[in-house]
Amino acid sequence: MRGKSDVLVIGAGVVGCAIARELAKFNLETVLLEKENDVCGGVSKGNSGVLHTGLYYPKGSLKGKLCVEGRLMFPKLAKQLNIPYKLCGKHVIARTDEELKDLEGLKAVGEANGAKGLTIISGKELKKREPNVDALSALYSPVAGIMLPYLFTIALAENALSNGVKIHVETKVLNIEQVNSGYKVSTTQGVFYSDIIVNSAGLYADRISAMLGLDKYKLYPCRGEYLILDKNCGELINSMIYPVPPKIAGVLGVHLTPTIEGNVLIGPSAEFINMREDQRTTKEKIKQLMSGAKELLPSIPLNEIIYGFSAMRSKITPPEEKGSRDFIIREDIENFVNLIGIESPGLTSSPAIAKMVVQMIKKRKDITEKIDFDPTRRRTTPFRESSRSQQASLIKGDPTYGEMVCRCEHVSKREVIDALNNPFSARTISAVKYRTGAGMGRCHGGFCLPKIVEILNEEYGMFPKEIYLKNLNSPLFIGTTKELREKRKSE
Ligand SMILES: Cc1cc2nc3c(=O)[nH]c(=O)nc-3n(C[C@H](O)[C@H](O)[C@H](O)COP(=O)(O)OP(=O)(O)OC[C@H]3O[C@@H](n4cnc5c(N)ncnc54)[C@H](O)[C@@H]3O)c2cc1C
Fold first, then answer.
1. Ligand 1 pocket, 203 CB below 6 A?
2. Atom of ligand 1 nearest to the CA of 14
3. Fewer CB within 10 Å: N-end or C-end of the chain?
4. Is 338 in the pocket of ligand 1 (CB under 6 A)?
5. Which CATH number characterizes residue 51's domain?
6. Which of 379, 397, 423 is the last residue of a domain?
7. Under a CB-based contact definition with an 8 Å cutoff, are residues 273 and 194 in contact?
8. CB of 41 closer than 6 A to ligand 1?
9. Which of 488 and 214 is assigned the larger pLDDT?
10. Residue 183 confidence (pLDDT)
11. Same-domain check for residues 370 and 401
């Protein structure tokens, strides 16, 4: 038995980590379980990273309410957790007379949800702000923003951990049973007991729910693909550029999003697929994204695309319904809180979802606030953000700061080692990438990946065959050339 907790949260995505951190404010034994070998192994690591303002969700919906609340909570949270974000604003552009009417509708919905500062501007005004974009008119949302979703999730988890939450990675929940005193949770790392369970397993939340006989939920994976433009295109747009959402798809349409790192994201596409783990990018969608991007920004230099990736929406809406349903956040069985269908705007809403879940738990348990909760997370300034003189003194104190591992993103060996010393012992290439940015630049790991492999070998004695890109399904090496040659000969 792995111990007994007051609350056990399943899934260390942005929602589970936000809930765990919120629970850390109280005198509670809280446990967070994650099946992957690091926190943020699911959809929270790859999305548009947009802080939405509530334009798209019906008044009175949880999506509308929690999105606006979460967005408002974000600046304080970002300061406490020491993570970057930018309120760069967003323009939803209208290119036809019909779309002009849609802008009024979006504005009305946003205002009903409590979004502030929405204005409709002329095409001429848009041109002044966004010289590369042509449209008849645009809806401007000044407080929409961008952030780094993976860094936000990691920061929430680290802060929860430093405030006493027990976080177990590589711990997949296999079964849950109701027992007299609460719940018995069987995992790949033994059995946990808890009074209360919060199911925030993202794309697998329906399967977790079914473990307790609640099989009324079914999630439909809907893949979204993205393309990334090189940083030298960062000045093409000053704000997010969105189309009027397509009426039938229940998604927002291909948009252009500046990123905190200075790239531009194109995407996402929307495609219902059968396999939840199928994170491919496809020729067909790449073409679709390129043409969607050209419609928004005709001069977009598509030869500057450096990478593509995909992410999976967990939709409650079946494909034939072609719409979007609201988040489901409810205590389906006593002391078992289900979070189902937390698709967009789940990232923006996560701090507000966490508050809502804690309110639900307060109704079940008498809980008191911890007096020593520390909301802040310390972060060392990245080498690339330090001044020349600071860099010189860093190198003087520790020469590994002077060894550049990632030349595109200027990440030093010291920072790679610090990232590998993360509290979750995630020793993968992705663990370094999400913590330092190494591998996110123009060459996308061509230069730094072998160097990180070398560091894993030198510092942790890991053999190449033990090194993974992200999880145990992604080995980087399958053997030495000699071994493979011998094997082929014997076949
Ligand atoms: C293409 C796309 C674009 C998006 N853009 C935005 C945006 O710009 N703004 C916004 O607000 N939202 C956006 N979203 C939505 C947002 O990404 C999600 O709502 C949010 O990340 C959901 O977080 P989560 O914690 O619920 O899920 P996840 O991050 O998937 O976390 C669930 C975790 O549960 C773990 N897990 C699953 N099963 C088990 C098990 N049996 N045992 C233990 N652990 C388990 C998983 O490994 C995973 O880490 C976007 C989503 C997509 C797909």
1. yes
2. 25
3. C
4. no
5. 3.50.50.60
6. 379
7. no
8. yes
9. 214
10. 98
11. no
